[in-house]
Amino acid sequence: MLKMLKPLVESTDLAIYSYVKPGAIHRYSTKFKDLHQYVRLLTSSLEVYYEASDLGDEVSKGRKSFTDVSVGSLIRRALQESRRFAEATDLPEYHLLMIPSVISATYTISTLGYMDIGRYQKAMKSLLMYSSPKDAIDVYDAFRGFPSDLGRALGTAGITPGLIKTESLTVSDLLEEVSKFSKLSRYLLGEGTSVSELVTRFTSTYLDTGDLNSAAVSSYALLLEVYEGVRINPLIKDKKDFLNLLKLDNKLVKEGLVKNNLIPALNEAIFVGILKFEYPKS
C-alpha cells in the first residue's frame, strides 16, 4: 500500500537528519558525513516494503494470517537489496525492525481506520511470535557473519540452523537467544523502554514545540538514557544548548561510544508517531 511509504520515508529522513543526537548520526555530525547511505537502506529496498505493507493489509482483511506473511524472508530480501549500502554503514538491523513495523502498522490502520499503539504492539508481537523456524533461519542467513550487532550476537550466542530446526525457534525465540548480546533484540522483546513511551515523547514534544526535528531528538534522548545511561537535554533553545550537545557528541564518538544501533528504534517511534497524526481516532 503506497500510503505507508510516505510516512516511512519521512520517518527515516527524520531519524537520520534531525538535530544533534549525541553519539549517533545527525545532520551536523563531523564523524558521519555521508548520511545518504543510511537513507539508501530504505530506498534501495522500497519494493520489499511495498510488499510488506500489502501483506499487512491482506492480514487485516482475513485473506492471510500472521503465520502466512513470511516475515523472515521479507527481512532477508530487504537486506539483500540494500547490502551494498548496509556494508558501508553500521545500521543493517534497520530492516529487522522496520519490515515488521510496516506490516503491523498497515494491519492496524486497515483494521481500525486509525493508528492505535496497543493494537500495533500486539500485531508486532504476534508477527514475531507466530513466525516459523524457516523465518528464523531466513533472519539467521541474512545476518550471519554480517559486520553488525546482530551478526556478532548470533556468533557469540552459538546459534546454528540446526539448533533453530531442532528447537523449532521462531523469530521471537531467535531474538530471545541473542538478547544478552544485542540491545535491539532486547528492545524488540519489550525490554527497557517501549514504542508507546517513545511515541508519546515524540508526539508530545512536537505538540509543544511544533518542531519534528526536536521531537525526534527528544525520543532519542529517552533511548540514550534507558539503554546507555547517558542523560541529555534534547531541546535546543539557543546557541549554548546546540554547542553543548555537539560537544557531548564529539566526546562520545572520540571515546568509541557510537550509538547508531538506537536509530532503528527511533525510526519506528517516529514512523508510528507520524501515523498517529495522519490517522487519528475520530
Overview in brief:
The protein has 282 residues and is mostly helical. The chain has 16 helices and no strands. The longest helix has 19 residues, at 94-112.
Description:
The chain is mainly α. The chain has one domain. Helices cover 67% and strands 0% of the residues. Helix 13 runs antiparallel to helix 14. It is globular and about 55 Å long. The protein starts with a helix and ends with a helix.
Low-confidence stretches: none
Compressed to H and E, one letter per element, the order equals HHHHHHHHHHHHHHHH
Distance between the termini: 22 Å
Total beta strand runs: 0
Structural class: mainly alpha
| Structural domains: how many | 1
User: How much helix is in the residues?
Assistant: 55-70%
On the 0 to 100 scale, the average pLDDT is 92
Gyration radius, rounded: 18 Å
General form: globular
**In percent terms, what proportion of residues is strand?**
under 5%
Name the features:
mainly alpha, globular
Task: Map the helices and strands.
Layout: H1 5-17, H2 36-43, H3 46-60, H4 71-81, H5 83-86, H6 94-112, H7 117-129, H8 133-143, H9 149-157, H10 161-167, H11 171-178, H12 183-188, H13 195-209, H14 212-228, H15 239-254, H16 263-278
Helix pairs in contact: 1-2, 1-16, 3-4, 3-6, 4-6, 4-8, 6-7, 6-16, 8-11, 13-14, 13-16, 14-16
